[in-house]
């Protein structure tokens, strides 16, 4: 009897499956999705104290609402509304989606909020975030990396857990997403944004564009992210703790077909932003100036990338354009940029303080104590389908530490004089394989001498 019961129990699903198969043409795509269901939820910091921006996607037009409240308080006590923009991908199918943006304001610094987003036609899962502490004495912690894809995203699991454990106040993704967001009529972009929701819905996910975003003039990148400023997330700056963080597009040096004027616009904006950040009253409270851009000025990988050449476009500019285009090294040096974060090379490399291809250690014993030039970190090994890159066996004297392990970087801006960086290896189960303290009693151009 027992076996008989088991048998007939087993037959049920089998018969059901046959019944389904006979209707196969109707069912191969499964049940149609709910086009009004919010997905791909992610946060960014608009740059105004007490604010947070929630961005998400639906495939049909709906209202854009975030319902939120303090952790431990009444759920969804408050409502904020925003709007949606229609994004039509440029692939063959011309897929349409609505990108919703809602800015929360008046948040209490350092308080944790619980939220969901959507409309009465569909709500997301419930997430939480901590409003950024806007004190200049606050010591923010970051995870940062570039070159993270849908396939082989080696660092993602550890980043998910650490982010959900509140180890980071913000994440910096230094270009190259998904590989590539536009592929399969932008379904690869959708899938990437779904995959990173597990981190990006909990802390501000701050980005800059990389070469893998270039298709259709960076339209997937420009439409899906919501960075501060009015440049469609291409270049912008923001402040956290004692740091002024500048995000830029190195791609303006390479994709001239999208407009040489973008290169000059960005350069002019960078100059103005750096000038403002260097006003004595500003630099006094936010002494650290940190830049992030996708393609490095220097690297010792064995590919033929821009950073392997002495005449790197990013570093030295281009003289084959009219007018000729200035590079970024002199600009950043002149305005006393402290730390420059890069990716693109699928490796990790730390440089001794460097300017003009020469090393300017603080001292031989303590190269990062009062360094006489900016400190460069290249961290593009978060994991993607292109695997990791290789190093050239004879690096120049500015190369201090190199690793081909998958991984990412942690940065802690401790106070006005101390900044800590460490490299996590995913190949070695989260082991910290490199770390430095950058210590500066003085910041700005005059600190180089
Ligand atoms: C809802 O979205 C789907 C997928 O983009 C589309 O096929 C359908 O026409 C849309 N319906 C409405 C009412 O907009
Ligand atoms: C923000 O950080 C500062 C410096 O650590 C701290 O003194 C202050 O209490 C924090 N603010 C809040 C609201 O927790
Ligand atoms: C590419 O996009 C940028 C940013 O929106 C825009 O300024 C530029 O004109 C576009 N280039 C072309 C060729 O459409
Ligand atoms: C232009 O730049 C290239 C390297 O990118 C360099 O070899 C060449 O000498 C430069 N030409 C002039 C006229 O400066
Ligand atoms: C910079 O400092 C490091 C670490 O002490 C040392 O190995 C290297 O030779 C120094 N480089 C120069 C050019 O002084
Ligand atoms: C800054 O932080 C470092 C490292 O924790 C500490 O040794 C130093 O005393 C701090 N400086 C100030 C001014 O608080
Ligand atoms: Fe890249």
From TrEMBL:
Belongs to the metallophosphoesterase superfamily. Purple acid phosphatase family. CDD domains: MPP_PAPs (cd00839). Transmembrane segments: none annotated. Residues 38-130 form the Purple acid phosphatase N-terminal domain. Keywords: Glycoprotein, Hydrolase, Signal. One of its GO terms (molecular function) is acid phosphatase activity. SUPFAM superfamilies: Metallo-dependent phosphatases, Purple acid phosphatase, N-terminal domain. InterPro entries: Calcineurin-like_PHP, Metallo-depent_PP-like, MPP_PAP, PAPs_C, PAPs_N, Purple_acid_Pase-like_N. Residues 141-348 form the Calcineurin-like phosphoesterase domain. Pfam families: Metallophos, Metallophos_C, Pur_ac_phosph_N. Its EC number is 3.1.3.2. It catalyses: a phosphate monoester + H2O = an alcohol + phosphate. Residues 373-435 form the Purple acid phosphatase C-terminal domain. It comes from Labrus bergylta (ballan wrasse). This is Purple acid phosphatase. It comes from the Eukaryota.
